[in-house]
Amino acid sequence: MADLYFSIDYISFSPFLTTRCSDVLLQAKTMVCCFAEGEHMKILLPKTLCTIDPSYGPLFFLAGPIRGGGDWQATAVEEIGKRLSKFYAVLPCRYEDTHPLMQMRLSGDEGYFARQLTWERHYLSLAAVLGCIIFWLPCESKEHPRIGGEPYAMDTRGELGEWRGALMHGPNLRVVVGAERDFPGLSQIERNFNLALEREFPIYESLAETVTAAVKKIG
C-alpha cells in the first residue's frame, strides 16, 4: 500500500514528533476503512494503525483513567457527537466485542505497533494538532474499582505532566482538562498547571464542559 503524507503548518512544537518545525510532515500507512452508511464517528482502538483524513473531521484522543474509571469514554464520544457531525475518537480501551462502540471501530494494520504505549503516543501527538486531547479525571468507580495494586490513575498523572511540559513550549497545542472535584490530588494538578504555564489554566468540572472546550479549540 502507498504511504499517506499530510502537512501541518500551524504548530511549532510537539513532544512526540521527531521533527520540530512550523511545517511538520507526518507519515501514516494508508488503510482501507469501512463504515456503515450514515455513520459520523470513527473510533480508533488499540493497537490499530488507521488512516486519518484531516478533511473528514477533527481527531480527539480521550485520555484519562481506564482501570477503575468506569466507561466515561463512551459518554465522551456521545457528547462530542452532540456538537460535531463528523469526527475521529481515539480510545485506549480494550473493549469486548459486544461493546456498542465496536460497531464504529476502524479497521487497519494490527501489527504496525509493537506496544499499546507506542500507539497511544502516536495518536496523542496527532490529536494535539489535528483536533484536541481531552483529559477527563473521574473519581474511581465504586461499582467497578481497579483490580491490582497500582495506584488509581497512575499513568494518567504521568501523561498530564508530560503534556503540561509540552504546553510550556507549545502553547498552541490543543489540550483540555476536566475533573470531578473529588479526584485525588486535583488541587495539586491545578497548581502545577497554573505555575508552569504562568496563567490560570482552566480545569472543567463536568465532562460536557470539557468536551465543549475541546470543540471550541478546533474553531
Tell me the layout of helices and strands.
Elements: E1 3-8, E2 24-29, E3 41-44, E4 59-63, H1 72-83, E5 87-90, H2 116-130, E6 131-137, H3 154-169, E7 175-179, H4 186-197, E8 203-204, H5 207-217
Parallel strand pairs: 3-5, 4-5, 4-6, 6-7, 7-8
Antiparallel strand pairs: 1-2
Helix pairs in contact: 1-5, 3-4
Would you write up a description of this structure?
By secondary structure, the chain is α/β, with parallel strands linked by helices. The protein has one domain: Rossmann fold. It is 30% helix and 18% strand. It is built from five helices and eight strands; from the N terminus they run ββββαβαβαβαβα. The protein has helices spanning 72-83, 116-130, 154-169, 186-197, 207-217; strands spanning 3-8, 24-29, 41-44, 59-63, 87-90, 131-137, 175-179, 203-204. It has a six-stranded parallel beta sheet with strand order 3-5-4-6-7-8, with helices on both faces. Strands 1-2 form a two-stranded antiparallel ribbon. β7 (175-179), α4 and β8 form a beta-alpha-beta unit. The longest helix is centred in the C-terminal third of the chain and has 16 residues, at 154-169. The chain is globular, with a radius of gyration of 17 Å. The chain starts with a strand and ends with a helix. Mean pLDDT is 84; it is low at 1-38.
